[in-house]
Write a structure and sequence with these properties.
2 domains, 323 residues, SH3 type barrels, mainly beta, 6-stranded antiparallel β-sheet, Thrombin, subunit H, 11% helix
């Protein structure tokens, strides 16, 4: 049930500690240990002498405790940077575009541009790592509504908080002196099981055409390409959409737009990073903390040896391009 990890990984896991927990398993066993990393399907638990992986499906209950074993009340904000949505009803896309437009950003560097979205009112922005990789001069443009029209507001003081080339996600912080809070886009409170055929839509800046809205459906909810798990969607994703949000009809960010298949004749083959992966990245952002003095920051590991891939998988990977 549990998989022991090489001790060389322990130092990285310790940087994303969630604190001491009492963990009861479905087979009757119990642990009192520190959860150091949470992944979509498992917890990594520090036993002091080693780190083990505990599948979430094996956990009967989980509660945070202090050094004496007393239960600890969870903070009201969940200890996270992002906000999860309250129960919402489906609305037409045009209504959500009106409400969510200010939360979607244009992210620019000297070598290109992409999209992003605000997850915290203090100006924390999510985008793709490949949008800002290797860059230090980053600007973020927000389209704010005033009394009569949309106002294009550009912020040039932007720092990289965390980044992961493996996940292709990055967290930015707008260093603004304004007191007014930023409008935010919320994530699902519970990671829903997306269904094939479910309507979704994207807002972004393909080819620099800001505030572009495109609609589609979920084609495949779990598509593996190059060892990564994606949402496959017919929503049009083009260069400049990278890092932008993929919304459901409840106005929740269910994915981060990432790439498309660029093969000749291919259409409607877009791919997004699931909100489950995004939550894990944000919850463990200390493990991906950006250090401008370290070209390998955050923590990055060598890929395992490639022992051969199927022809079909190889073709899909090679024909996929990151917009």
């Amino acid at each position: 049930m549990w998989r022991f990890l090489a001790s060389g990984l322990c130092f990285a896991a310790a940087n994303a500690a969630f604190g001491m927990h009492a963990i009861e398993l479905k087979d009757g066993a119990a642990l009192r240990a520190e959860i150091v990393v949470e992944r979509p399907s498992s917890y990594f638990v520090d036993l002091g002498f080693d780190v083990i992986e505990v599948p979430k499906g094996a956990v009967a209950s989980l509660r945070q405790i202090d050094a004496e074993g007393a239960a600890v009340e969870a903070p009201t904000d969940g200890g996270t940077l992002y906000t999860v949505s309250e129960q919402r009803d489906d609305q037409p896309i045009r209504d959500w575009v009106e409400q969510l437009g200010e939360a979607v950003a244009l992210v620019q560097t000297p070598t290109g541009l992409g999209s992003g979205f605000v997850i915290h009112e203090d100006g924390y922005v999510v985008t793709n790592d490949h949008v800002i990789a290797g860059e230090r001069r980053i600007s973020v443009t927000i389209f704010k509504k005033n009394e009569h029209e949309l106002e294009r507001v550009t912020y040039d003081k932007v720092r990289i908080v965390a980044s992961s080339s493996e996940l292709d996600l990055a967290l930015l912080k707008i260093e603004s002196e304004e007191d007014a809070p930023f409008k935010i886009a919320a994530l699902p409170a519970v990671d829903e099981s997306l269904r094939e055929g479910q309507t979704v839509f994207a807002i972004g800046s393909p080819l620099g055409l800001d505030r572009t809205v495109s609609e589609g459906i979920i084609s495949v909810a779990n598509r593996v390409i190059g060892g990564r798990l994606y949402l496959q969607t017919t929503t049009q994703i083009n260069p400049g959409n990278s890092g932008g949000p993929l919304f459901n009809l409840r106005g929740e960010v269910v994915g981060v737009n990432n790439m498309k298949i660029a093969a000749i004749g291919a259409e409607g083959l877009g791919f997004s990073i699931s909100s489950r992966v995004l939550k894990s990245f944000l919850d463990n952002r200390d493990a991906y903390a950006f250090d401008p003095r370290n070209p390998n920051s955050g923590f990055r590991y060598l890929s395992p040896p490639n022992r051969g891939r199927s022809e079909a998988a190889s073709g899909a990977s090679e024909s996929a391009s990151e917009p």
